[in-house]
Amino acid sequence: AFFRKSSRETKAVMKVSILTQPLGHNYGGLMQAYALQVYLKSIGCEVETLNLRMPVPSLGSRVRRNLILLAKMVLGKISSFPTSKKEEQALQNLHSFRACEIVLSETLYPGKDVADYYRENEFDVLLVGSDQVWRPKYSPRIAHYYLDFAQALSAGAIKLSYAASFGVDFWEYEEKDTGLCTELLKKFDAVSVREQSAVGLCKAHFGITPELVVDPTLLLEPHDYSDILSRSDFSAKGKILSYVLDPSEKIQGAVGKVSDLLCMESVSIKPEKGISEVKDNDITECHYPAVEDWIKGFASADFIVTDSFHGCVFSIIFNKPFLALGNERRGQARFESLLGMFSLEGRLVSGADEIELSHVEQEIDWPQVNALKKKISDRSKGFLLRNIFSRGKDNE
Hints:
The structure is a single chain. By secondary structure, the protein is α/β, with parallel strands linked by helices. The chain has 14 helices and twelve strands. A seven-stranded parallel sheet has the order 3-2-1-4-5-6-7. The chain has a five-stranded parallel sheet with strand order 9-8-10-11-12, sandwiched between helices. Helix 1 links the parallel strand 1 and strand 2. The termini are close together.
């Protein structure tokens, strides 16, 4: 354990700024941000997550988007315009959790906003992670996630990545971004990634060998989520929990086959329709359930079927039998690396055709999985402790 003196002459805590994906659009993103803050606070850090938003689209981009949406309405492909007001209504439960449970900076946008903010606020540690922060198409201004703004700072903050992910096992960067990010990464004090494939990508394209660590949600124990669970009356006991990000006939067929094999009803923990699929007066059909209900679903279900990375993570945390449905669009490498860590590769299938009775009846060796989880989690905690406090030994 790490202890500090309470003297006014020494620094009471390490002040950490976390840079992650814009939060509030999905459960997994919120939970990894929540878990990382909870763990860092537990080891004596004062933590804040940068409330970074996507850049405001140009007028031309908005006009083009609206013309495309109008054409889709005329063709009957969508039922209504997906306005920002309707999106806010649909996501209000996720936004409420973000506001109540995660310490955020003021709202900022890429560029001058971020640079000015860090010049005006001193942090001991700048920590990039977790989730797909190094995937260019997901991250607003990819160079920010390599701390490009830190070059103008006078203070010598510790620069780390924790469980950073590219999301895929192939290279998506343009040549100029590869060169820029390579130079920026040389200024980091330590680098860690979330997937084994990311280790290989960093070696091949950045010329470094990062440390492999777990997603922040796996730094916590099941009881660390008990306060959140206690706020929900939702229960999937005796049922199959279906958490599917990209519904399709193929995916629904897989959920149906598991339901038939287990002779058990399935229940979904995500709205079945998007905001463009319903009329304005039916927007309640698109409301995302509370985060508390989402977690309770995993904790209470008898079996889980999911195409979500964090759906797999919480199945493992709560020791629930599950099947992972391969999701190439969102990055298959993430699933393969996660399941490989726990010798659970056999839980990954591509569709109903692959699912046999053995998939749903085979018991998981949870004592072995939990032992592996502790070993990998302890190593990951060691990465954070070692690197966050590497310059603070004189304050111990």
